[in-house]
Amino acid sequence: MTGEPVTGRRHVVVVGAGPAGLAAADAALAAGAQVTLIDTAERPGGQYHRMLPEAYGATDPGVLQHGYRSFDRRVRRVLGHPRCSWWAESSVWALERRDAPDTADVAHVPGSAGDGPPLVHVLSGTPRRRHVLEPDALVLAAGAHDRVLPFPGWDLPGVYTAGAAQALAKGERVAVGDRVAVAGTGPFLLPVATSLLEAGSRVLEVLEAGRPGALAGGWLRRPWELGSQLGKSGELLSYAAELGRHRVPYRLGRAVVEARGDGRVEEIVTARVRADWSVVPGSERVVAVDAVCVGHGFTPRLELPVAAGCALRPLSAESPAGSPSEVFVEVDGDQRTSRPGVYAAGEITGIAGAPASRAEGAVAGWIAAGGAPESRALATLRANRDRGRAFAARLAAAHPIGRNWPGWLRPDTVICRCEETTYAAVCRSAVDPTRTEPGVAKLATRAGLGPCQARICGPTVAELRRGGDTGAGPHHRPVAEPIRLGELARPPEPPPGSSEPSAHPDSPVEESTS
Amino acid sequence: MSPRLVPAGSDPAGRRDRPLTITVDGDPYTGVAGQTLAGVLLAAGRTSWRQAPSGAPRGVFCGIGVCFDCLVTVNDERDVRACRRRARDGDAVTTQSRATGERDGQRP
Prior knowledge:
The structure holds two protein chains of two kinds.
Chain A (H helix, E strand, L loop, with lengths): L10 E5 L3 H12 L3 E5 L29 H12 L4 E4 L2 E7 L22 E6 L4 E5 L3 E4 L3 E3 L12 E3 H11 L1 E2 L3 E7 L3 H10 L3 E7 L3 H9 L2 H5 L2 H16 L4 E3 L1 E7 L6 E6 L12 E4 L2 E6 L1 E3 L2 H6 L3 E3 L12 E3 L12 E3 L8 H16 L7 H23 L15 E3 L4 E2 H9 L6 H8 L12 H7 L20 H5 L25
Parallel strand pairs in A: 1-2, 1-7, 2-3, 7-21, 9-17, 11-12, 11-17, 12-13
Antiparallel strand pairs in A: 4-5, 5-6, 8-18, 14-15, 15-16, 19-20, 22-23
Helix pairs in contact in A: 1-2, 1-9, 3-4, 4-7, 5-10, 9-10
Chain B lengths: L3 E2 L13 E6 L2 E6 L4 H7 L4 E4 L5 E3 L11 E4 L2 E5 L10 E6 L11
């Protein structure tokens, strides 16, 4: 049998070891479960707590991290726990529903009742080996990646996502450039700029496309709500103070509308934008840079929830400013998805930041492990989570994407970076009556068919085709991670060293609120 | 100017770098154990190493394994994300191109 722990305990598989996944694993262990924690990275932490490589031998890694000590305590507690199997550098490449009528394997899956979570197909190790886990409960905490709206020249080397710049600075100590601009929208631009400064880059300016009015409305209205998120808003204030100390201008209502250069970015064009992000003519400015870091919010990584059959909800339920392509996993008060035995936590349920992700993860892990739903600790966690979500909704409302951003585009601007599908081609397919069906349009334009499988351009193409393809469409990837035919052909192997059950007394669920 | 590694001597994180060498299309690049292949290339000042279908240069974009812009061949293994693969001493990296007319254009 594959992936079955040698114990009578509930086996909880947690996918993603960022703030949500780590909290889920911690709580599930506290509730007495056997836990398998899977992440694509070498070390836990996700993007928020990105750690230096072990091989750097850093004596003081905490200086690069917010809230490092409580994070480090949790990492040690989880990874050192005898009931936890930590699978680093491992990817879930498919989830196989046990109730699916087209699943040929159902007949010989022992005990498959069709009402449990899906089988979890994992690739692990170098060279990669294939494993299949059969959990009693599955917690999905895959997180999100940067969303970047296209602009002319965004495919030049030297244009990075804001997250790439931060990952390289925090995770590898590589500064992406000497003269750097940070642009886009949202509070995440601040820590990115701070990371670049810390790594020795000169940050020329931070451009927030949002207008002062929207920001003031979102950030300053009902300030008592900020008080309940002191950790988070304090963190943002410290970033802002750091920018001030380095005299980095934070310009509101301004955007990068073009990048230019011969083989790599050499200069950018910035422009003032109105509330709908249309460019104010004559406001363009050319700035010499060797790198530009751009982020317009985040795209949740939904391929696994979609593969599991989880219901999605549109963002517009909480923020009418959201674009129609922004969807998240629907969860109930206990982080249950619409699929039995499948829980979701963190950014895939809504972009709410680390504190809310931690609280969601803890609730999900505890319930997934069969912990008592009326536990007092859980009430506190639920309250933390709801406050985190309220804070996030305000931030989202303060940083909407203006609907006229396509005004930046030219007919030959690349929309799909993999296939180099142009804006003109996407527009043509949107009005051609024979190509309005999303699948047909995809084949005709090739947008989304390249190696990234529409991870980068999917939401943008959906939006440009307005009304054509929304909902789960851009996130439907049954093969969640590229797998080689040779890897697929080899039979799955049993998981490496499942640990023996331990006599640990069950302790109440813990949650740090830093 | 170019991307670069924060010097270990001035890094508040207190690093103890151990050097390693890889080759890219036969040319040697010196990096630090623990770095990704993309990190080694960027720190050496190289911002692109792959070609899109039109021949346009590509390097790191997302940095976290999502965009697949940075694909390389490592020791004959194709389509490896350079931003995710840790460099190992002696790795032989060859660059990839999807440009029309090149035999190497298959998708992963």
